[in-house]
Structure formats: C-alpha cells, structure tokens
Give the backbone structure.
Amino acid sequence: MRTEAGYYDGLTAGSTTVVLSLVGHSLQFQVGEDARSILISDVRLISPVGRGVWVIEFGERASLHFQNDDFGNHLSSALGEGSLVRRLEGKWHWALIALFVAVAGTWLLLTFGVPVGARYVAFAIPADTINSMGDDGLGLLDDILFDRSELPEESKMRVAKLFADIQDGDERYQAYRLEFRASHVGANAFAIPGGIVVITDDMVTIAESDDEISAVLAHEVGHLIGRHGLRILLQDSASALIIAGLTGDLTNVTALSATLPTVLMQAKYSRDFEQEADEFAFDYLESSGIRTDVLQELLLRLDDTTSGDGDGIRGWLSSHPQSKDRVKRE
Amino acid sequence: METEHAATTQATPIRFSGNASEYFRIWIVNIALTLVTLGIYSPWAKIRKLRYFYTNTSLEDGHFDYHAKPRAILIGRLIAIGMVGIYWASGYMSPVAPFIVIAVIMLSIPWLVVRSRIFQLRNTSYHGLRFNFQPNYADSFKAFYGGALITVVTLGFGAPTAIYMRNKFVANNAGFGQTQFVFNGRQGEFYSIIWKSIGLAILGVLALMLILGLSGGLIGNSTSTNVNSLYSAASTIVLLAFYAAIGIYVQVRQRNYVWNTTELGDSSFLSTLSVTEMVGLYLTNVLAIILSLGLLVPWAQIRLAKYRADHLAVCLGADWKDHIAALNEEGSALGEEVGDVFDVEIDVAF
C-alpha cells in the first residue's frame, strides 16, 4: 500500500514530496538518493481531526504528512490502534447521540447535580463556623444598605416576641437573632448567612397584622435553617463554571450568549430557594394556627406598592416566584 | 502607509478549510465526553478543537498544527481551579483576603503571560516547524508594570503607551524556528485608535440617549408595565451591542496594525479585517447562537475563523524556507490555563 506524502526534516521549513509505502512492518520512502526504511514500531501516528492531514512522527523531529485516509486507517490498524473518538466524530448518528447526551447531561448536572452537591458541601460546614460569619455580613450591609431603625420600642418588642415564638420551635433556631434596620430599599426582610434576620422598618409598618410579620420572619428563618445563602453562592459559582466550561471556547463578544443561560439558571436556583423558604413559613403558620394566606396577601400588597408585574420575560429572570403563585403546594 | 510591504511583495493568502457540519460533530462529541467524564476529558477536547482549526489553516503548501499534551493542560487546569478555590475560600477567613489573592494574581501576570505564550507558541507548528517564545521575564515585568505605572501616573491618558508596550513585548519575543518576529509599530497609532474609540463611544451614547429619550417619551405614557419592561430590556440590549461594537473596533484596528507592522525575517504580513464586517459577523453569530439554543456555536466559530484567515496574508521573503528550528523544550501549560479560567485576556493581536 502506498501514498504520496510530504517529508519534513524538522530542521528547515521546507518539505520534500515522497512516495510512502507500507511493506510488512516497515515504512519505506526515498529522499533524493537516500532510501529510508523505518519500523512502524518506531513511529508515532497522529490521525487528523476531521478530514485532514495524517502525521507520522519519527526520529528527533522528522515527520511525514499525508492526506490519504485509506492509507492512514490501514496504518493505524497495522499499529493496533484506532481512535474511538475519531469514529464517534465521523458519523452523524453518533453526533445525534452525543447531542442527546450533552443536553440530558447538562440538564441533569445543573438541576440535580449542582443543587445536591451544594447542599452536601453547605451542610458539611459546622454550624459554629457559619454563625461566626454573620456579623461581617451585617457590617458590610450596614455600610451600603442600612440605616438605624426608627421604629418605636414597643413595635420592636412586639416583633421580637413573634421572632422568639418561631425560635421556640427548634433548638437550632436559638442561635439566630433579629435586627431592625431602616433602608431605602423599602419593605423587605433579609436572611444573612450566619444566623441574622434583618427586617426593615417599612416592612413592619406595611404589615397589617402580626400574622403577616410572623410569616415574613418564618420565611427568613427558613432561609437560614436551609443555609440558602451559602448554597446559592455555591450553586451560582458552580453553574457559572459549568456553563463557561461548556461554551468557554467562544471568543469575548460571543461570550454574551453564555451569560444568558447563566443568568436564567441562577434565577431558577433563587426561585427554588424562595419556594423552600415559603414552604417552611407555611408549615410554621399552619402549626401555629395562623391562616397560611397571610404571606401571599402581604406579598401582593408589596407588588402593588412597587407596581411591578412579572409576567412573561421578567418571570423567567425573576429571583423570586410570582407572588400570586406563592401558595402552599399540597 | 500600513500596506507599504504589500506593495513590493506578492502576498500569499492564509486559507481556512474547516467546515461547519464536520466541526459540529467534533464539537458535540467533545461536549458529551466532557460531561460524561465530569470535565476530565476537557483537555483532550481542547486539543481536538485546536487541532481541527490549526490543521485546517494553511499557507502555501504547509498547514499549522497544535501539539500540546493533554496532561500538561489538565495539570494547568487543576492548578487554575485550585486558585479559584483559594480565592473563594479566602473570603470566609477575612474580608480582605480575596483582595490579597487578587493582588498576588495581578502581580504574577507578567510571569503568567510569558508561560502562557511559551506553551501556546512552542506547541504550534507550521510546516512541521515549531513557533517559539523567549522566556524574557525581566522585559515582561518591565512592559506590564511599566505600562501600569504610566497609566496610573497619567491618570489613564497614557494607557495607549501601556498597550503599545505589551504588544511590542509579546511580538518581539515570539519566533518561528530561530527567527524572531520584529514589531515596528509606533505608539502614536495606539493613541489614535483609543481616542477614536472613546470619541465613538461618546457620540454613540449621546445618539442613543437622544433616540431613547424621544421614544421613551412616547412609551412613558403607556400604562402597560409589560411594554415598559420590554422597552428597558431592548435599550439594554442595544447598549450592550454598542459597547461590544466599540470593543470590536479597538480589537480589529489593533490587530490590523500589529500584523501590518510586524516582520518575520524578510517576510511581512497583511491584515485587512474590516470593523463593520466584523461587527456584522459577531452580531449575526450571537443572534444565530441564541435562536438555535447554542446549536449553531460551531457554525459561528467556523465563520469567524474563515473570515480571520481570509483577511490575513503573508508576504513571503525569499529565505523563509531556511528557518532553522529552535530546539527548545515545551513550556508547561500552567500560564495558559490560569489565563483561561481567570480570563486574563492579553490584548495582543496574535
């Protein structure tokens, strides 16, 4: 079996065209007057990616380049090696199977693998370590987001009592504490990783009953007990790495198209945690004999004051589920 | 002025012969195997991708090739992931620790750039002959720190000098076999490119504000919040696309200038990328990728590679075939891989 090939000595950039033949276990070709014979056990065969050039490397840096696929396949079977990957890349039905594996694999990894992994890692960290992080986080937010609370003492006492009632539910909740802050962000409540719940003055004033405040506080305690802050951080980093890894060979500008799936995925993680915290709150309300509708009523009232509706596109990008959907799922 | 070499010598075009349907299969098999092996396959995937693009790029009767060993890339990636992990974990020890980690990484950029260039170039060959990069750490520190110092001292106005210094460093230390690339560009052109891009950015933002202001007035009265949110999404997209276009302008002009003022022995280069064509290419690529849910990524990459190759030619000197290979050991993949994960994009044209 023979083919035309280019011979490169690896010392100069020029090449010589030779006729390469495979005779038994040796490769033979002639450069000028010089007839060469090399044992195939002394060469390294590099198959092309796609259609292209086969390369035979031997000696210090010399190489032979040829395009003949038949010769290449013949030589690789003579060498007892055949590239499995090359075979997969060669046929469309393998490509379709690969496409299915890629789609299913990405979906499984992002919706199950990442959350399960993050949950495992987050709960492997001792509670004491987590709780020691709270004050740093609160200090940072005090600088950028919060002012001193201007609520009257009696309101604070009332809300603190509601919080203490939730804490009585489980001894793990005892490490948590409640802080009051005023903030330009309006009516809101925060669960700061490390066991601190912050409620804004506006939230206390906008609530029409103690039950509504209990619902909000229980929701935030749900975030804390589930270690959602840490888990979302882990999930966001992991999903960004995975998506960047899959699309990572895109150049700068085209990378814009990798941002979209990352943003959508992270919004989904956030909504899932909100749902989990809602369920925690519903369970608490139910066990305390409070109507579970109060959380939804409060949220709908908040939506009215901020005049945002989240139908359509904004729903997918939203970090929170739609208020009208936030009812207990049976 | 930029094409003075071309006038005297015949320019030989670079050819790219990859095609989208063939590359699609390579790309999707790469992704599937990377997922199934939980990422361990990714260095092999990278090599197959680069080999496809390199071996399909040719000049005269020779083609390019990529020779990196998967193990070197895997180790580099593991170290890079380890560094990301240290950065991430350091935030839990103290609020200032991540800044220290970033500072250390920033300080080691000159070293990383050299390692990355060495790895990339020594693993690239044309016509069976390897490219090369001089491990010139002292000059790298001078180029990067000196440039940073000039930028800071001049309150940013001297930034084009810093870009010039980095380009010059990266070009002058690259070689093919034992022949060094020589960069003859001047600082002035970088000032012109940067100032024009800033001018374009200001004009563009003013024009956008005017258009948005006018149309916003009309839509502002609308009671539907959906119209409003759609409108704000649309204006964000227009703004992003505009910024991207400015980025492409800077990239294309610099790339053209650096190639056109660089020589290799008695060979020179002719880069004729067009800003408008490149913007069109990127825009249609992004649209195609989004609308096809990512399936047209390979098509987009092939198009881009073809356009780039079609607009680069080499004016070959008489003695280019006699370049002697520099027998250097291969660089480690560390520099390059750290650059990948942290996205330390070095703005050089090649």
